Amino acid sequence: MKTARPQILYFYGPDCPVCKTMAPFIDEAGEKFEGRVDLKKVNTATDRQLASRYRVMAVPTTVALSGGNEVTRIVGARTPGGLRRLFESAETGEVLESGISPTDRWIRIGVAAGFAGFAVWTGVWLLWILAVAALVFAFWDKLRR
């Protein structure tokens, strides 16, 4: 979707409760950036081709495009401030870091600790592998740089 103006593609599902919660915030951000950034809402149930083209695996997914190129992708809910930064990212072409939230990281570390604890308790080596995999998953955003 090459256009001269930056774009935000907001992929949502009609039955998605998170999408329904985010809708007013997306609309508000779209109004604030009107004339500078185009907002396109994409219903993944009816526009499967565009969702497939952008490899949308979960909703809500918000993609910032600048000069027709993807600069930032965010999967899941964001605060109004996070959405504002996303729109600014599209406008300036600056790539945003979209790593794992601190809460999600701690949950993943807790899962890894649980696997390690069960591995010590039961002596099952497969649980150690799962513990290591859970830790890698917890820090994947840092490891892939």
What does this molecule look like?
The protein is α+β, with helices and mostly antiparallel strands and 145 residues long. The chain folds into two domains: 7-92, Glutaredoxin (3-Layer(aba) Sandwich), CATH 3.40.30; 102-143. Helices cover 51% and strands 17% of the residues. The protein has helices spanning 17-32, 48-53, 80-92, 102-122, 125-138, 140-143, and strands spanning 7-12, 38-43, 61-66, 69-75. A four-stranded mixed sheet has the order 2-1-3-4. The longest helix has 21 residues, at 102-122. The chain starts with 6 loop residues before the first strand and ends with a helix. The model has no long low-confidence stretch (mean pLDDT 87).
Average pLDDT value?
87
Overall form: elongated
Biggest sheet descriptor = 4 strands, mixed
Mind telling me the CATH superfamily name of the largest domain?
Glutaredoxin
Along the chain, the helix and strand elements come as: EHEHEEHHHH
Kindly provide the name of the CATH class of the largest domain.
Alpha Beta
Examine the secondary-structure arrangement and name the CATH architecture of the largest domain.
3-Layer(aba) Sandwich
* Number of helices, counting only DSSP H or I runs of 4 residues or more: 6
Side by side, the strands of the main sheet go 2-1-3-4
Range of helix content: 40-55%
- How many runs of DSSP E, i.e. beta strands? 4
